[in-house]
Amino acid sequence: MTPPDASPGAAHHRALESLYRAAPINSLFPSKLEIVEDGFARIRFTVGSEHYHAAGALHGTAYFKMLDDAAFYAVNSLVSDRFLLTTAFNLLFTKPLKAGELIAEGRWISGKRRVYVADARLIDSEGEEAARGTGTFMRSQIPLSSLPGYARP
Known about the structure:
This protein is an alpha+beta fold. It has one domain: Thiol Ester Dehydrase, Chain A (Roll), CATH 3.10.129. It has helices at residues 10-22, 60-76; strands spanning 31-37, 40-47, 82-93, 100-110, 115-123, 129-143. The model has no long low-confidence stretch (mean pLDDT 93).
């Protein structure tokens, strides 16, 4: 599928990366967002024992956060005027994870106006997929330009 016609461009992508860094939740999840191109985002995340559930592996909240964020930013890379909202997200866990580096990759699939669909996958330090998700996202009434972390270079 081809992304929407008008590309918001690199300045928008860098502003979204700034917005990600400014989100208070990310103090709990040390990670870095990179918007690679229109419709594609990558997040690098370091898992530590503080992210484990009682049985000693990564808690599902971290899987969800990384997959949702990667899919969200892949889609918001195509929308330069409004903050998007996740309206649904389906998650498939395929492998328990321990401490180490993870990569979440999100890719826009469809949608050009109000509702968007994106896929994401979580890759472990050995290059194996550990989880996959699909989400739907819609435009909010919140202008990106009104958000403190969104600063165009």
